[in-house]
Structures are given as C-alpha cells and as structure tokens.
Write a structure and sequence with these properties.
The protein contains four helices and seven strands. By secondary structure, it is of the alpha/beta class. α3 packs across α4. It starts with a strand and ends with a strand. The chain has a five-stranded parallel sheet with strand order 5-2-1-6-7, with helices on both faces. The protein has a two-stranded antiparallel sheet with strand order 3-4. The protein has one domain: Rossmann fold (3-Layer(aba) Sandwich). Bound molecules: adenosine-5'-diphosphate (ADP) and magnesium ion.
Amino acid sequence: MYKHILLPTDGSKLSAKAVRQAVRFAQSIGAKLTVIHVSAAYRGMMDEGFAVPAVSAYRKRFEEQGIKHSKLLLEGVKSAAQAAGVACDGVAVISDFPYDAIIKQAKKAKCDLIMMASHGRKGLSSLLLGSETAKVLTHSTIPVLVVR
Ligand SMILES: Nc1ncnc2c1ncn2[C@@H]1O[C@H](COP(=O)(O)OP(=O)(O)O)[C@@H](O)[C@H]1O
Ligand SMILES: [Mg+2]
C-alpha cells in the first residue's frame, strides 16, 4: 500500500532506531525511501537585543556547514538502505522549522507515509512526544508512523 516513505532524521540515537525500522519496513513492503535532514538557518547576531543583519559571507559558511553535516547523516542512511536493497534519496534542507520542511518535502516528493521517532536529540523526557514529531502529527495530511 505504501510506496514512498519520508524518513526525517536528526542524527540522534532515537532517530537511528526509526531509521533501522524504516529500512526494514520499506524492504518488506517494497517501498522506496526519501531521507531528510533539516539544518538551522543562520539567524544573525544579537546586539543589545536587536538582530544585526547577517553578514552574508558568515551566513553562507554557516549554512554550508549545515548542509555538509546533513549530507554526512544522509549518506549513512542511504548506505544502510542500499545494503538492504531499498531505493533511497537524500534531501538536505535549511529551515528553522523542521516540521514544516518535513511536511513540505512529503508533498513535494509525493510521499504517502512519514515515518519518524517519537523523540530526537532532546531525548525521552517527560513529554509524550518530541516537539517536531508532535507538530508533524498535528499538521500532516498524510499518515505518520511514530516509532517508539
Ligand atoms: N532537524 C531535523 N531534521 C529532520 N528530522 C528531524 C529534525 N528534528 C527532529 N526530527 C525528527 O523528529 C524526531 C523527533 O525529534 P523531536 O520532535 O525534535 O524530539 P526532541 O524534542 O526529543 O528533540 C527525530 O527522531 C527525527 O526523526
Ligand atoms: Mg529535536
């Protein structure tokens, strides 16, 4: 039924568990994967409470580092998928709103399922769900499978 799964990852241990399950799940149902990592946009420096417009060279370097880090994460997932015989694309996006970038990518790539961990970098706190997962669940119009 599901043919194309979007797999957001933040590189955390909990996310790695979701990655392993998603690869096995995709393999068992013959689906393909798109793995996405969202890195933060450069916000500029604060000076006496006012945001100073970002120096463009610094912004560029900051965002290039973000993309480089994303690509490292994505390569790891892509090789795990490849080893399992699952087709997998990687997408690196810059945004301050990971949940929004995840939902937009799901639409753009016409994914029919989003599969992600309940928590991420902040870990299993008393919160029922991590903040990005909670927002994806709230705003997504396609099914979301939450790995615990
Ligand atoms: N920047 C990100 N890029 C891609 N996926 C993300 C990002 N941040 C979180 N996620 C996804 O959401 C899951 C839950 O993370 P999150 O909701 O941020 O929880 P936490 O509050 O514990 O960090 C992660 O395991 C990952 O799958
Ligand atoms: Mg997080």
